[in-house]
Design a protein that fits this description.
It is a single chain. Helix 1 packs parallel to helix 2 and helix 2 crosses helix 4. With 312 residues, the protein is an alpha+beta fold. Its EC number is 2.7.1.39.
């Protein structure tokens, strides 16, 4: 196995998982991006971070991009002596917008691109399986890799996913709070079992959500009803729960984004609606391409830590 000479770079989108009733299976790629570049070196792992998480994220092999790269290199067949990583982060950390999945996908794809025949050794299906294994579930890594609206599931061999086109009328808005959330804490709030009626209702709404997002956006409000996870997590995120309720009361198809605390609105927010001073609202396009890899270092535009085109 030989390593590619020179740097490679990848742009990875933010994602919103669950989308209400699609717990651990449905996800949406959003037009907010992290840019990461990597290069093989003679020794050690050096990571520089600009933007979100700068000065907070671990360095060296403990950085999640580097961890994912090491896992991918194991599958590819060899480890490089060293790595230099440059990360320009725009996806908020620990807010329910897939920052960890973006880092994992970036690492897997960068490692593959740094091996001369990496795509033959680790194809897209295998990259998805590895990313989902590292993350623990496929609902965020699938849209990050594939773009668009994804349905993901896990078989004995690992994760699989499909990407579906989204109706043009779907225009997401995210409401991002200053406070952070922890996925582990949000999962700990979930009960071991739920009533059969709640499971049946949620399964029906998840099926309807696929139709609503791809064909009939007018049905998004009823399609985003959930009884599996959001109510159980509400006590730990009261401001998030209150904002979801207020938006839905105004006729907006709003849900908790991933494990929260960000709120995702899938339909137009009424003019004059104010979430409060603790929230930033961003209108984001749907990313239809997923992660994109290229040769070379990050350019001036990629090094800008501000999210270009983000409306607030």
């Amino acid at each position: 196995m030989t390593f590619a000479s020179g740097p490679v770079r990848v742009r990875v989108p933010a994602t919103s998982a669950n989308l209400g009733p699609g717990f651990d299976s449905l996800g949406l790629a959003l037009g907010l991006y992290d840019d990461v570049a990597a290069e093989v070196t003679s020794g050690g792992v050096r990571v520089t971070v600009t933007g979100e998480g700068a000065g907070e994220l671990p360095d060296g092999d403990r950085h999640l991009v580097a961890t994912a790269m090491r896992a991918a290199f194991d599958l590819l067949g060899a480890q490089p002596a060293g790595l230099a990583l440059e990360c320009v982060n725009r996806i908020p950390q620990a807010r329910g917008l897939g920052s960890s999945s973006a880092a994992i996908v970036a690492g897997v794809l960068l490692a593959r691109a740094l091996v001369d025949d990496g795509a033959a050794r680790l194809d897209d299906a295998a990259a998805l399986r590895l990313a989902a294994e590292i993350e623990g579930h496929p609902d965020n890594v699938a849209p990050c890799l594939l773009g668009g609206f994804t349905v993901a599931w896990t078989e004995p061999v690992g994760a699989r996913a499909v990407s579906l086109p989204v109706a043009e009328a779907v225009r997401p808005t995210v409401f991002v709070p200053g406070e952070r959330g922890l996925t582990a804490a949000a999962r700990a709030a979930l009960p071991a079992t739920v009533p059969h009626a709640d499971a049946a209702l949620t399964a029906g709404r998840a099926a309807l959500l696929v139709h609503a997002l791809t064909t009939a956006p007018a049905l998004l409000l009823p399609a985003t009803v959930d009884r599996l996870h959001q109510d159980y997590r509400a006590e730990g995120m009261p401001a998030t729960a209150a904002l979801v309720a207020a938006l839905r009361g105004a006729g907006v198809a709003a849900v908790v984004s991933g494990a929260g605390p960000t709120v995702l609105a899938l339909t137009e927010v009424p003019a004059g609606f104010t979430p409060g001073t603790d929230w930033q609202s961003w209108e984001l396009p749907i990313d239809v391409s997923g992660a994109r890899v290229a040769r070379g270092r990050l350019g001036h535009a990629e090094r800008d830590p501000v999210a270009a085109g983000r409306k607030s």
